[in-house]
Amino acid sequence: MSRIDPRKLETFRVVVQTRKISSAAKLLHLSQPAVTAQVRALEEECGRALLLRSSKGVTPTDWGLRLLEAAKQVHDVLGAVESAFQGEPAVGDEVVLGASMTTAAYVVPPLVAGYRAIHGRVPFRLQVSNTARVLEWVAEGRVPLGLVEGRTRSSRVHLERYLEDELVAVAARSARDLCGITRAAELATVPLLLREPGSNTRAVVEESLGHVLGSREVRRSELLFGSNQSMKMAAVAGLGVAFVSRWSVQLEVSAGTLRILPLRDLRIARSFSWATPSPQLVGAAGRFLQWARRNPPASP
């Protein structure tokens, strides 16, 4: 076998971590056909299938998992070399970041841990609020970098899609009547747990339900919550069906306290996006953003 091209190896690593060719292409600033061609060329060089492809995305084969570990090691070594030439961020060079509720809880922590593992004890200051407020902070210069959720638009800041997300319907596994729901129309007969008015998550859920059921059929919820955590715990308590980020329920689903309802006629996709004052960001926040682009956390 000839020597493997490190660029193809890096493309393969990002594809596996994002689980989708389209998401990897955006992060790598390549076209989808170019990413597909690089992965297929890598498979030819290795003489083995590295990915299993389906309508939901891609997953690595056993050989793909073995190669992924090697790809991660190469990535870390090249990152260390790059840092040596660029200069390590000073320990006192604080990274200031604004983040929306879900991203602050489930996306930022692994990013910070990975960044500090390579760059040392770089200080971070995280400010948390809803998406609209974080966008205001970035536009006003209160924070240089934001990570927000939802189908977000803003004329005052630059937005860059980063990770794919999905709002899923969940219910307590012990609530058998709720766990049997398979279609959106059935939600009209059960209590819905929603975020407070003004929440981006609530707006997306109500809009999506309206498209499927008709706006008149979307029930007004009597149970409103000011955070994802309180809404999840209400669902665990059996109070009703909640729509939450797939990123936020990994532990509860694994523990068996919540079940994702397999709604056949409703899928609510959204994304997490970086928000910056301009396309080019410098300083400590800029260095962190460059690293985060190359090292997206694995999708749930």
What does this structure look like?
- There is one protein chain.
- The chain has 300 residues and is α/β, with parallel strands linked by helices.
- The protein folds into three domains: 6-86, Orthogonal Bundle (Arc Repressor Mutant, subunit A); 95-163 and 271-294, D-Maltodextrin-Binding Protein, domain 2; 165-270, Periplasmic binding protein-like II (D-Maltodextrin-Binding Protein, domain 2, 3-Layer(aba) Sandwich), CATH 3.40.190.10.
- Helices cover 45% and strands 20% of the residues.
- Strands 3, 4, 5, 6, 7, 8, 9, 10 and 11 form a nine-stranded mixed β-sheet that branches. Strands 1-2 form a two-stranded antiparallel ribbon.
- The model has no long low-confidence stretch (mean pLDDT 86).
Q: Output the CATH topology of the largest domain.
A: D-Maltodextrin-Binding Protein, domain 2
In the CATH hierarchy, the architecture of the largest domain is 3-Layer(aba) Sandwich
Q: State the CATH superfamily name of the largest domain.
A: Periplasmic binding protein-like II
Tell me the name of the CATH class of the largest domain.
Alpha Beta
Order of helices and strands: HHHEEHEHHEHEEHEHEHEHEEH
Output mean pLDDT. Answer: 86
- The class by helix and strand makeup works out as alpha/beta
How would you sum up the major sheet? Answer: 9 strands, mixed
Query: Which residue ranges are poorly predicted, with pLDDT under 50 across at least 5 consecutive positions?
Result: none
Radius of gyration: 21 Å
Domains (count): 3
**Share in helix:** 40-55%
Distance between the termini: 34 Å
Strand content: 15-25%
By DSSP, the count of extended strands is 11
Which term fits the overall shape? globular
Tally of alpha and pi helices: 12
